[in-house]
């Protein structure tokens, strides 16, 4: 059963090894956990629905309290605190479960007539407030796409698969795998997030180096709007004017509800493996990662942890004896204190992967990288989707954890990374609290890369105090990112949390273009209000 | 000196070998050339300008007849017939030559105030009527960007170069080459077309398989609009809402005038070579080309001629003795009558290109391809930008030549190719005229490819008759393309000629989105009227 107040499956818990606890305590002190609200107590708070369902929609829409609780919040830290405290604020007035595009169009017509706000809901994994209802004085209906979760068509000539927009990652891959194909889109939210959500929020997966971002995978599909059905035909490439697909990508429910998604798929690879290299310092590690991508070495995945993340990962890994041996070995090879861990994946035919490995090792070696083989890479692959469960483990220990991510050009990577880490590390100093901050680079481009920073701090004595701590860190660092050539989000989208920072990034005229698009399709602003643009 | 009434440099002429003439005569009969108008006679027809230049713009704007003649038409076949007959129709009222973004903004303000139509002009190489003035009862000012032709900045860390939008292909490459870099964007119009024009019309180069289309190369820049300056910051990738760059790409002067373009560049490669393989038949050749791209073999360029194009190219190549020897050799290896020629390029490090060649040869061999080495590939590379000069040579012989191009998914390639060729081949049958038609595939994607069809027909007894022949062929085939899952253009853009077919491709709601964008930035519709959307 899915957790109603946190990440993932109730049956799965990530254990924190003892030395991991000691490590955190030494950095930011011991935590004191806050008490959790119960599902029953929250359901009791859900107000009467404001929706009056017409007869033909009764079976489609659930207005019961539990469904409304389970669809009220995503997975941002603010959402987490709301769910654990039981202080949800606004609930949707009902949850619809359409099974066809036609039913979605029916819901749209009804919403337009009644001025009901519609919120499209995929996996509910947003960490930026995309799916949270806001109180605008009108009823809110959340449209859960989970019943549209099938592989509708697979064209093996053109390598295009058509999915219902509510298909979550595991069902995307298992349905394709049955035919010998993969989409290759593996965001960390893979377990729950959906193909429609990936398109609506411009998602990027861990192996985007091979398969591309969702922008490259999204070939077309169907969007139900208040103006009618928008069909996006599949065409490999076109010079015929502005690309409508690119207006739907990142539209976050403001233009319409995506119901069918056509994606570019690939035959399952002959070979895939993940490898780990340690570098003596950040400078050499960053240079190697930049050269790997700028030389077009055929990697499928690349991730570079800075020294603190490397240290933290080794401390939290457990197995202190094995890790100790590894560290002595690395130290002898020149990668001691301050070492940085790189993980890379190679995927493809035997010939391609053999050559890619050769190229990659040669570039790393030239930067004094110490290659350690696939053992740690296999560990990364085995745990690649479990990191969100860490929040639960830390929460039980009295810690809050969140991440911030951006992307910027290579000439600005070190500068922006430094600014972000300093802002987070010092953000709670006036409260005499330390923050444990570490970063990796991932999603590499010849032009630059994404910067993904994790920060851990102790919860306060109350939920209010904890939320205030988070707001302090999130706000100041977000401002800093957009004022220093970073995007407000490389892979999490805008939602409501990032909307205040979007105008700096897009500029006045960029915002004008986006607003004009939204109001062309939704003149009365009933779709997902306050998301993307206020 | 640039030809005023045709393609390229006056000093360069492509000779048609005798057997090429015989070949065409045997296919469609001998031609009877039409008489050309002189530049003087056309200049004499240019009406008085309707522009009253304010003092500060006098030196910026040329209202003399020759400049106005030279900027009145592009390079479509209809433009060609207008230029050769001297029947231009509408001329712009003047030509501005701004040197800075600020001057462009001054021109925009003046145009808005006086309701003057502005047409941005790059290399004047449009084959779809992008830069042709139309008579809307108001003066027309063509804005020639050729004085903004410099490399403004090169960031070698992030591999981003900033160019003035009017920089033509050779100046892009020579200025980058001086620093050891290349953009790698080589459309057939490379000699004259500009980086701003590439962005405005979503251009694609011959080596897009390595370097990407202009969509992938365009990192940001500056656009002057009637609402002010739109700055597009460089960010490697972002999930922050719809991508504004993608709205400028393909905007064809309807949103604003692009003045600066930031592009992603690459260090000059260690190795580059072009190779030719012949296949016994179309089926095996098409399969090989699909597999080459779907296996992600690191090619930089791929082109596959069908049997008639292969035959035509060999006939027009001259050197009948050498070609005869080649054909006997190929025939012995199984590639006789009906053979298809594939050219592929490999570019990159020695290791990468060695491996790519190995992979490519193995895939081709499995489809019975006969590899012939680099000799014919070198010929292709040497002549890669000279094909547009062929129109001049054919014109002198009384033939008109034009091309049609589209892109579609693999499952539809053979169907659409067949429809296009049949439509063109039979299009003049009721006039008892034959059309010589041949096709190649180029610009390959895992999902599909572009289809590029050339057609040659005899000019009529008059310009009117010749234009009518072209219109018959162009109209019916364009309709057929958009009604059969093809894009109205993979690489030439929409302009005025393709605008009638765009609504079928984009759909009613796609057109609504594009129109709303245009009118947001240009509510009085003074920019490049009737281009892109009517």
From TrEMBL, chains A, B:
UniProt keyword annotations, A-Z: FAD, Flavoprotein
Gene3D superfamilies: 3.30.300.330, 3.30.465.10, 3.30.70.3450, Uridine Diphospho-n-acetylenolpyruvylglucosamine Reductase, domain 2
GO BP term (any one): lipid biosynthetic process
UniProt: FAD binding residues: 120-126, 252-258
Site annotation Important for enzyme activity: residues: 303
Keyword Mitochondrion recorded: no
UniProt-annotated binding residues for substrate: 391
Names of required cofactors: FAD
Catalytic-site annotation from UniProt: 452 (proton donor/acceptor)
InterPro entries hit by this protein: Alkyl-DHAP_Synthase, FAD-bd_oxidored_4_C, FAD-bd_PCMH, FAD-bd_PCMH-like_sf, FAD-bd_PCMH_sub1, FAD-bd_PCMH_sub2, FAD-linked_Oxase-like_C, Oxid_FAD_bind_N
One Gene Ontology term of the molecular function aspect: alkylglycerone-phosphate synthase activity
The keyword Signal is assigned to this record: no
Positions of the FAD-binding PCMH-type domain: 88-268
UniProt superkingdom: Bacteria
Family the entry assigns: Belongs to the FAD-binding oxidoreductase/transferase type 4 family.
Protein name, UniProt field: Alkylglycerone-phosphate synthase
Protein source organism: Marinobacter adhaerens (strain DSM 23420 / HP15)
Phylogenetic lineage: Bacteria, Pseudomonadati, Pseudomonadota, Gammaproteobacteria, Pseudomonadales
């Amino acid at each position: 059963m899915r957790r109603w107040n946190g990440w993932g499956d109730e049956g799965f818990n990530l254990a924190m090894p003892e030395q991991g606890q000691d490590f955190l305590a030494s950095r930011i002190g011991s935590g004191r956990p806050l008490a959790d609200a119960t599902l029953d107590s929250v359901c009791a708070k859900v107000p009467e629905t404001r929706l009056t369902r017409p007869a033909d929609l009764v079976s489609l829409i659930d207005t019961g309290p539990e469904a409304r609780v389970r669809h009220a919040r995503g997975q941002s830290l603010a959402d987490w605190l709301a769910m654990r405290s039981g202080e949800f604020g606004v609930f949707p007035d009902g949850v619809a479960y359409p099974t066809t595009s036609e039913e979605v169009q029916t819901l749209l017509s009804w919403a337009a007539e009644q001025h009901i706000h519609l919120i499209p809901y995929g996996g509910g994994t947003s960490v930026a407030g995309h799916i949270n209802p806001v109180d605008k004085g009108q009823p809110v209906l959340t449209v859960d796409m989970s019943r549209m979760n099938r592989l509708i068509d697979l064209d093996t000539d053109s390598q295009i698969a058509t999915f219902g927009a509510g298909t979550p990652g595991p069902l995307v891959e298992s349905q394709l795998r049955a035919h010998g194909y993969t989409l290759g889109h593996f965001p960390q939210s893979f377990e729950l997030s959906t193909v429609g959500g990936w398109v609506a929020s411009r998602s990027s997966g861990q192996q985007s180096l091979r398969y591309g971002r969702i922008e490259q995978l999204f070939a077309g599909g169907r969007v139900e709007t208040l103006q009618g059905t928008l069909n996006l035909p599949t065409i490999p490439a076109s010079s015929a004017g502005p690309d409508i697909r690119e207006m739907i990508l990142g539209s976050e429910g403001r233009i319409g509800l995506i119901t069918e998604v056509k994606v570019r798929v690939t035959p399952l690879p002959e070979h895939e493996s993940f490898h780990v290299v340690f570098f003596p310092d950040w400078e050499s590690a960053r240079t190697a990662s930049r050269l790997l991508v700028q030389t077009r070495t055929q990697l499928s995945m690349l991730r570079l942890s800075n020294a603190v993340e490397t240290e933290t990962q080794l401390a939290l890994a457990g197995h202190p004896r094995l890790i100790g041996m590894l560290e002595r070995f690395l130290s002898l090879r020149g990668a001691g204190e301050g070492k940085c861990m790189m993980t890379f994946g190679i995927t493809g035919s035997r010939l391609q992967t053999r050559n890619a490995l050769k190229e990659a090792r040669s570039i790393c070696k030239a930067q004094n990288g110490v290659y350690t083989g696939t053992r740690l890479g296999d560990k990364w692959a085995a745990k690649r989707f479990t990191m969100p469960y860490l929040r639960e483990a830390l929460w039980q220990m009295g810690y809050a954890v969140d991440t911030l991510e951006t992307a910027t050009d290579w000439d600005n990577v070190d500068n922006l990374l430094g600014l972000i880490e300093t802002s987070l590390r010092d953000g709670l100093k006036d409260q005499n609290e330390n923050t444990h901050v570490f970063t990796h680079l991932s999603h590499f481009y010849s032009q630059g890369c994404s910067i993904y920073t994790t920060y851990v701090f102790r919860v306060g004595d109350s939920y209010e105090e904890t939320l205030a701590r988070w707001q302090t860190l999130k706000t100041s660092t977000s401002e800093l990112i957009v004022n220093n050539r970073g995007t407000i989000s490389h892979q999490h989208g805008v939602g409501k949390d990032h909307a205040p920072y979007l105008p700096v990034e897009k500029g006045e005229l960029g915002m004008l273009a986006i607003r004009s698009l939204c109001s062309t399709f939704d003149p009365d602003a009933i779709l997902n209000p306050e998301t993307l643009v206020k």
